[in-house]
Design a protein that fits this description.
The complex is a heterodimer of chains A (210) and B (273). Chain A is mainly α. Chain A is built from 9 helices and no strands. In chain A, helix 1 packs across helix 9, helix 2 packs antiparallel against helix 7 and helix 5 packs across helix 7. Helices cover 44% and strands 18% of the residues of chain B. In chain B, helix 1 crosses helix 11. The mean pLDDT of chain B is 93. The radius of gyration of chain B is 19 Å and the shape is globular. Classes of the chains: A mainly alpha (210), B alpha/beta (273). At the A-B interface, helix 4 and helix 8 of A face helix 2, helix 6, strand 7 and helix 8 of B.
Amino acid sequence: MNWYDFVLRNRGEVIARTAEHIGLVATSMAIALIIGLPLGVALVRRRAVQRWVFGVANVVQTIPSLALFGFLIPVPLIGGVGASTAIVALALYALLPILRNTCTGIEEVDAAVIESARGMGMTPQQVLWQVELPLAAPVLLAGIRLATAISIGITTIAAAIGAGGLGVFIFRGVAMVNNQVILAGAIPAALLAVLADLGLGAVQRRVAAK
Amino acid sequence: MQHGETIVAGSKNFTEQIVLAELFAQQIEAHSALHVERRVNLGGTLLCHDALVAGKIDLYPEYTGTALTAVLKEAPQYDPSVVFHRVQDQYRARFGVEVMRPLGFNNTFAMVVRGDDAAKLHLRTISDIGTFAPKWRAGFGYEFMERPDGYRGWVAAYGLHFSGEPRILDLGLLYRALADRQVDLVAGNSTDGLIAALGMVALEDDRRYFPPYEAVPLVRRAMLDKHPEAGEALAQLTGKISEEEMRRMNYAVDGEHRDPAEVIREFRKAKNF
């Protein structure tokens, strides 16, 4: 049996798992953006704090996901067994590229442009919203694009904590000694990553062209 | 004997496998001039099997019941010697892999509950949980859910009904989830050192549902032909490890966080291998 025969025969579950997968990626990315964007803006040109925050985000990135799940199981509210633990872990992993690109994107905006904006009498708020953020948008989007691609890949690990997603096929296939089942999870996940990357790439180009 | 040649010992991704791979490696290094590279923690039966057949690793520890049902995909059988010989014949013919004599212990699935539940509800055997199961959440690994000798047959054999679908978790997270009361029963391995260490209780398989899972070294024939001394070194381990000894070594690593290499050095010294 080929992997696509398996997918066809189990299309109901493949579709449901794909939807779960997209849900996990979307939720964790949304949380990472809600935290990462304002925090990234707040860190602009604050070298000392940046070093600490980036350091912590870097360390989080290196914690193996199974270990992270293990730490999170006993944590009330956000922990336990199921989707919440997976989302917390995935959001933590997505945080670093978003933080970094927000911060560096804004810092790389030409100082002369900011100077002239101030000269025109813009408040710091206006400079941020009307000058810095639009000019940093391509770099910012590159960070979101990278975080999304990574997130779609690592969301397969959510299946290790009972949160579902396409990783279920991968874990099940490994357990059953069945490559077809593994591919039924891995190939849709790879397709999702490619699609998301193409979509965000197009958005990025349009923003850059402005 | 070719001096300094290297062979590769592999293992699956749980403690006992890593400990056994280390035992095989030390045993071969002590009785030959071979150097043994440890490539442990491979993700499960599939990876180890494929790596062995492809010649990427030369040996790894396996369990006869797992080889029969998960790799050969045959129906479970219950006589240990029938299972062993069936697996040995098939591996020889189909994969060019030698299934060596059993090491002495059986690592079966263990249905594990928290110690306080076991005491309060007087649980000793799997049959005892029948009336409580409808109020319980069970947690299992993917392998147990899918194997022919796993979940479906098990609930049928004992007529069990749990509250909702079982939570499916990675093996390494099961005991944490049980200890933290996220689930009420998990399927572990009978030789897991953590069962006793965490004050948990393994229930007796009173209806004899699970087939034998005798631990055996699987070795590539081509490597044995080239280095017969490696086979002789491993043959010395036949029947030498009891379930209790294996459990103690697993606990030394999982519970006391000791280095598997050191645990095995002490074990080999004590057993005079």
